């Protein structure tokens, strides 16, 4: 049984003015660091990044965030204000793509394993099925069905504090995946029900791993 948490209204922050009154003024450098296009440092960072998270919104403002990953440098820089992101095979929910069609505003966080700093991009996105663009994103002779083309509004480096606090890359902080059930087991528990038979569940897990190998690209 769940119970809805009631927030005390007198403690809610409901305006930007009230919000900013709670914090010191923004440092001048934090404002100036936001660039309208990529520079050499940003290009170098993106060339090293094998992973990003992209945030989108539905027409009515419902937020969504989705991971994207590939070999390092998988996001192509078409020019200083334009990025090309492949859409690899997934579960075909198409949340990110449908959101972009309805609302082009996107926010992207680029990560590099071992780096505590990140790069943030805010801009507008479109979907393209241009064969010339898709050919740039081919892996194992397979091209994506569509590509996400992002026009950069602002790009900036984000400091290391969140990664330092989380110790995300420290080997001593790696957790044992076996402490939680497999992905198929959890999803089946949430939906149709997982089988009680261990051998049957093991086969479902093995089938997922096989699907990963066959359908990654």
UniProtKB/TrEMBL annotation:
Gene3D superfamilies membership: Electron Transport, Fmn-binding Protein, Chain A
Residue ranges of domain Pyridoxamine 5'-phosphate oxidase N-terminal in the record: 38-159
InterPro entries tied to this protein: Pyridox_Oxase_FMN-dep, Pyridox_Oxase_N, Split_barrel_FMN-bd
Pfam families: PNPOx_N
NCBIfam families: PPOX_FMN_DR2398 (TIGR04025)
Protein name per its UniProtKB record: Pyridoxamine 5'-phosphate oxidase
Protein's organism: Actibacterium mucosum KCTC 23349
Upper taxonomic lineage: Bacteria, Pseudomonadati, Pseudomonadota, Alphaproteobacteria, Rhodobacterales
């Amino acid at each position: 049984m769940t119970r809805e948490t009631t927030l005390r209204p007198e403690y809610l922050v409901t305006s930007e003015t009230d919000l900013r009154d709670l914090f010191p003024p923004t440092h001048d450098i934090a404002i100036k660091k936001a660039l309208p296009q990529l520079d050499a440092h940003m290009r170098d960072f993106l060339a090293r990044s094998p992973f990003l998270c992209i945030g989108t919104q539905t027409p009515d403002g419902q937020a969504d965030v989705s991971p994207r990953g590939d070999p390092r440098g998988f996001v192509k820089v078409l020019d200083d204000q334009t990025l090309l992101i492949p859409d690899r095979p997934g579960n075909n929910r198409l949340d990110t793509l449908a959101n972009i069609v309805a609302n082009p505003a996107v926010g992207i966080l680029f990560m590099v394993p071992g780096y505590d700093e990140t790069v943030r991009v805010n801009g507008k996105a479109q979907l393209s099925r241009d064969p010339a663009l898709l050919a740039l994103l081919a892996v194992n002779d397979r091209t994506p069905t569509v590509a996400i083309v992002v026009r950069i509004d602002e790009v900036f480096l984000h400091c290391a504090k969140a990664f330092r606090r989380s110790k995300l890359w420290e080997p001593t902080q790696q957790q044992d995946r076996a402490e939680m059930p497999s992905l198929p087991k959890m999803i089946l528990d949430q939906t149709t029900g997982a089988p009680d038979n261990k051998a049957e569940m093991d086969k479902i897990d093995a089938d997922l791993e096989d699907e990963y190998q066959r359908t990654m690209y």
